[in-house]
User: Fold these one by one.
Assistant:
Number 1:
Amino acid sequence: MNLHAGGFGLSGLMAIPHIRKYLRKEKTAGIILNGIAGLYAISAKEFSKRKAAEIVLDFLKTFEDPLKVMERAYAGSCKGSTTRRKEIAYCARWTIAGHLVNWESFRWFESFSNTVYTGIYIELLDLVEKRSLLFSGTAKAMAQASVAFPGLFPPLGGRYVSTTYYTQIPVSFVEDGDTVILNLLKSDASPQNANQILTRVLQLRQIALVKELLGRKKVETLHPEGRINWDKLKDENFLLEIFDH
């Protein structure tokens, strides 16, 4: 039986307590990941759970502004001119390069080894063959693959991106008897502009695809409680609950 754990943007944090419990088990079939949840799992195997928390939080801090824009976290919530200028600047860069930073921009990637950890896979989309796949490789490659977010980094190897924008959680290869952490994004208030409407449509499509894939198999689902936003990262009690319990 495999565990499927991931999530779009910050929602991947909600899967981490379940991942920690799963990694402690002596006998597990496998774990299929994407997003922040994948970065945490690979970091925990490579270093320690404490260092994994540091890496994940450093990643979010390093790329907070572009991730907020990509996730529409600013839309409808900030009215300052500074925020608007950031959005325009990022959109201008996307029209030229399609991504904001290169892999070298995150110092931790160079710290990962060439060790291959069996039983851990990152679910990716292959832009060349236009299909989803399970990726296994060195710790460095797996860490990068988990957060190969379109718009932030160039596609890994020129062709692979995370499935967080496809199904939010990694369920393309779910099988009977698997366990799925069902932490799909909860929609906020009604959309107020065209940008928010398009984002909502994308989310609805993602959720519909997840339900279709899960409906074909007999799986156990786990439902993380609570909502996640960027302000939560300043809450020490929340961080303790995610990383230390």
Number 2:
Amino acid sequence: MTTVTLPLILAVDDEASNLQLLRQILQDHYRLRFAKDGPRALELAREERPNLILLDVMMPGMSGYEVCAALKAHPGTASIPVIFVTALNDTDDELEGFEAGAVDYITKPVSPPIVRARVRNHLSLVRMEELRASRLEIVQRLGLASEYKDNETGLHVIRMSHFARILGLAAGMSEIEADDLLHAAPMHDVGKIGIPDRILQKPGPLDPDEWKIMQSHATIGAEIIGEHHGGMLALARNIALTHHEKWDGSGYPKGLAGADIPLEGRICAIADVFDALTSVRPYKKAWTEEAAIEFLVQQKRKHFDPALVDLFVCQMPAIRAIRQRWAEEAPAEQKAA
């Protein structure tokens, strides 16, 4: 039988009667810890990492605002949501509370239904953020798995995904859309998990039958990610499926052309190729930045969206900074050459 662990709430108030009231309101649905001053609250928060903190403002020695600021300044407690529970009810008091880092503000005397509703809502938001973070980590790790399979490095997916974000912003994406692109792009080659090693790691050119199998990694990737109505995973599926399409229609798997290729696929095609060209591989030296840019320009209206190539070239200072931040060493044999 599975035991469900109830969320842990830390209630902080210098008045025992107020703590007792909060106990009566919340004890049937949550685990509770109590503190009567700021230092003890900080100690318990760091030791037990509660899911949420209910915090009085007017306390002797250390005010609730000071406690909240200390919580937000510590990496181990910064993400814990804080709700102020206080008799202070002026607009300026609420503003000060939010500026200190609180997520909500409940005035005394408290209403039990309101306390329960506010606590439940904020814990739901925490849970949603935890699920989002877990999903993002799974997506990133699947992206890394495909790179290991292909004898690449994890730095490739980091660099190309940041290149994609930079280009997405330049192309008019919002910050949120560009961040989704950043997080979805690492899955562009996840379908290589389904390609046999004898083909994926073949040192020489692929024959026509082998090349057909290799091309299937785009549709395999889309199948692995699955159908989604929207959000980051839908974006990741489109990228996996379309980042090998070409502007002139000669790409794969569907032979899409021009604006029929989703914007995210056109962006990731440029980001992926540029990083591949400028990176060291066991079978080649890295191209210079100038040579890679020349290739992108030559392939305008053939492989790549011409407008996106122009935007990418204009972003080279930011692209260069990403390359420097996540640089990798050349293999020893190439250093010696």
